Amino acid sequence: MYSDILIPLDLSHKEQAEELAAVAGKLAAGEQARLHLLYVDQSFIHRASYPQLDESELTGHKSDAQQQMKYLLTDLAKNLELVIHCRNGTAHDQILESAAELDVDAIVMMARKPGISSYFIGSNAERVVRHAPCSVFVIRSENSNS
């Protein structure tokens, strides 16, 4: 059914990886599929959080994120291949750019239940749903910060 599925993941909520991968596996319907696990590091958007870091420290931060993602989903079904991606920038922009560049069939992502703050700011999931070039499956979670 779906053969290329993008899964944006917040590494501060690693516990969500298995649930997102399970949904993606169902969307693959037993066929061969690639799960593109995407981590977007937003801490360097304006370099305000880490103004003193040099390029080697930034590279180390990316490498650490890749290592964490590599070990999150070790028990995937044989028909699923895991591909890891790391990007810097705003989450919704990087998710949309990745979806277009990778030409994915679907995006599976978490979103918290809406509260009063989402009426003023909006969520990453909302922006992705509005502008994605493919189907988007939003999984509701009480604990997600998307």
UniProtKB/TrEMBL annotation:
CDD domains: USP-like. It comes from the Bacteria. SUPFAM superfamilies: Adenine nucleotide alpha hydrolases-like (SSF52402). Residues 1-140 form the UspA domain. Belongs to the universal stress protein A family. PANTHER family: STRESS RESPONSE PROTEIN NHAX, UNIVERSAL STRESS PROTEIN UP12. This is UspA domain-containing protein. It comes from Amphritea balenae. The lineage of its organism: Bacteria, Pseudomonadati, Pseudomonadota, Gammaproteobacteria, Oceanospirillales.
